[in-house]
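Worked example 3 (structure in, sequence out).
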């Protein structure tokens, strides 16, 4: 059996020294002493300050990524990536990164207004991992119901195939072995969605998309980047 181990450096371990220390624990805590994929959890550190220095956030992100590159060079992380990075954060990262991220993990489903981010990741060769796509509101989309009914397949399986055919990795969270086996078995049903099916499921972009994790001031697009044009 083959496992793919992913780990994240938490938001309270941002910056070169703290991220480096967190990544060193991989050798002690994970089987084999390495992770297949290491992710920066969030584009800013966990702080209770109401006013955060934008320039310091940039320094923290740059230092964190330098620690990730070092961990990659040392074999602690076979691949490195980010999580919850918006388009502006990826563009900023591209200015100082020696190794470009292999993955960006975000909340995303059909209708979410992140088309530019998705296209940037695709053009950059960055795999997009998506979470929170199994929430009920994402399974209520009329186009998804129409395609699933025509194909005679479950809504979840059709939506999963929608992600996979576009090179995305839909993640699911469960602590039940039977659910893992069900989803894994479903992936062996290698049916194909037509271009018309893909468009129907995508549907229109929703500016009122009901985010699950990206709410209020906690949404990652509120995390400022350096203004390089000033």
């Amino acid at each position: 059996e083959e496992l793919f181990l992913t780990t994240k450096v938490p938001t309270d371990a941002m910056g070169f020294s703290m991220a480096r220390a967190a990544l060193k624990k991989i050798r002690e805590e994970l089987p084999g002493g390495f992770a297949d994929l290491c992710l920066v959890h969030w584009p800013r550190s966990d702080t209770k300050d109401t006013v955060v220095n934008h320039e310091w956030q940039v320094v923290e992100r740059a230092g964190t990524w330098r620690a990730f590159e070092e961990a990659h060079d040392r074999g602690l992380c076979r691949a490195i990536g980010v999580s919850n990075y918006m388009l502006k954060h990826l563009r900023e990262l591209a200015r100082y990164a020696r190794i470009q991220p292999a993955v960006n993990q975000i909340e995303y489903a059909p209708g979410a207004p992140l088309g530019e981010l998705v296209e940037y990741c695709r053009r950059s060769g960055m795999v997009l991992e998506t979470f929170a796509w199994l929430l009920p509101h994402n399974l209520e989309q009329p186009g998804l119901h129409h395609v699933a009914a025509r194909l005679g397949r479950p809504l979840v399986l059709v939506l999963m195939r929608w992600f996979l055919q576009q090179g995305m990795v839909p993640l699911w969270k469960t602590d039940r072995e039977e659910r893992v086996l069900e989803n894994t078995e479903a992936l062996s049903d290698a049916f194909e969605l037509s271009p018309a099916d893909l468009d129907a499921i995508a549907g229109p972009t929703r500016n009122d998309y009901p985010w699950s994790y990206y709410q209020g001031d906690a949404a990652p697009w509120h995390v400022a980047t350096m203004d390089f044009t000033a």
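Notes: Strands lie at 6-9, 37-40, 80-83, 103-107, 127-131, 169-170. The first strand starts at residue 6 and ends at 9.
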